[in-house]
Write a structure and sequence with these properties.
Helix content is 42%, strand content 23%. The chain is an alpha+beta fold. The radius of gyration is 25 Å and the shape is globular.
């Protein structure tokens, strides 16, 4: 078996050159019609001052320290004057945002830039995540409720809602391909105002969700949930579950007889033998290694593995990898911005595959 052609292109950094030129044209056009940030000139001025300061000191650290001590009072005074000016500029910029050109308002950023960005790598890659709760649980439910029932996120306030930051999907409809995946940057939170009018936010999940087609099929479901450390009333710390007590008699709590694993994870399954098919000694070692860096939960149903990683993401695959919303301001360097986005997207997919291969080592190739 060989690595898929898609993965080989990712590793080499290949992109569709004709699409790249088309995308560059879209970036340049967008830069010409989008509002210009008032802060770009300020940033250039600050960088210019820093360069002149470095020329003045000749890179000598001692001279730089002496000059800084002399100039600090002046800098504080200037900052006190400049801060209100910067606030005024920000206000003007925001007000100017409502007076954008018709070309900018009508520019479909999603179709003309985001979608084309993904097609640089493969036609089967798209900026979408399929909200199919049936792949997580058997009942048709709202996606957030399905995440809770699959024990991928902790129960949350009923008034809370989910917000998608970014998403991508590769060949998800081709269930025979274990190279397919889905990635979603997601946040579930509840926001309210107190009597003083101040806004508060309670966050229940803020991280990334991944779905893989695996090389094996599980009967029923298997859930592996990271525990959290809490301090006891009499001192010391203990690992506890963030999920509700399990009362369903049809679900088995799994004892792996590995104390380190039991302290780090709660494991339940419809069928005990199915859990042990997945929890091999090598897999337990892998999960414990991942647990050192991430708080995560896994649900395996059929041949679909869904992984939720809280507080950020896995390596380069973070929420802001590919923001689908149209930027407020024009990029100062369209080509540089485009190349940065291409690099971020490629690194994210490589990071997703690294995680997938750790959790499904037998499925890292396509037959």
């Amino acid at each position: 078996m060989e690595l898929s052609a898609f993965r080989q292109r990712l590793l080499r950094g290949d992109v569709h050159l004709a699409n790249r030129e088309k995308l560059l044209g879209e970036y340049r056009y967008f830069a010409s019609i989008a509002p210009k940030s008032s802060f770009s000139g300020i940033g250039d001025g600050i960088r210019g001052i820093a360069g002149k300061f470095n020329d003045l000191t000749g890179g000598n650290t001692a001279i730089a320290v002496v000059l800084c001590v002399i100039l600090i009072p002046l800098m504080i005074f200037l900052l006190s004057v400049a801060l209100p000016v910067m606030m005024i500029i920000l206000l003007v910029s925001v007000m100017g945002f409502s007076k954008q050109s018709p070309e900018y308002k009508n520019f479909n950023y999603y179709d003309r830039i985001v979608n084309l960005m993904y097609k640089l790598f493969d036609d089967k890659l798209s900026p979408n995540f399929h909200y199919n709760s049936a792949e997580i649980i058997n009942e048709a439910k709202h996606y957030d409720d399905a995440l809770v029932d699959a024990r991928l996120v902790t129960p949350f306030h009923k008034k809370a809602y989910g917000h998608t930051f970014t998403s991508m999907s590769y060949d998800w409809d081709n269930v025979m391909s274990t190279d397919s995946f889905e990635f979603l940057g997601y946040k579930i939170f509840y926001e309210w105002r107190d009597d003083d009018g101040e806004t508060h936010e309670e966050v229940f999940f803020n991280g990334c969700i991944y779905k893989f087609h695996t090389s094996f099929t599980i009967n029923g479901t298997v859930n592996i949930m990271s525990t959290v450390t809490k301090k006891g009333l009499l001192g010391g710390e203990r690992e506890v579950s963030k999920f509700k007590y399990i009362k369903d008699k049809e679900i088995n709590v799994i004892d792996t007889e590995n104390q380190f694993f039991a302290d780090s994870f709660d494991t339940i399954a419809t069928y005990e033998n199915e859990a042990f098919r997945f929890l091999t000694p090598a897999m337990i070692e892998t999960l414990l290694r991942l647990r050192q860096d991430y708080y995560f939960c896994i649900c395996i149903k059929g041949n679909v593995m869904t992984v939720a990683i809280d507080n950020g993401g896995y390596k380069s695959a973070v929420q802001s990898t590919m923001n689908n919303s149209k930027p407020f301001f024009a990029p100062k360097d369209p080509e540089g911005e485009m190349n940065r986005k291409i690099s971020d997207c490629r690194n994210a997919m490589l990071s997703i595959y690294e995680l997938k291969d750790l959790l499904d080592p037998a499925g890292m190739y396509i037959a």
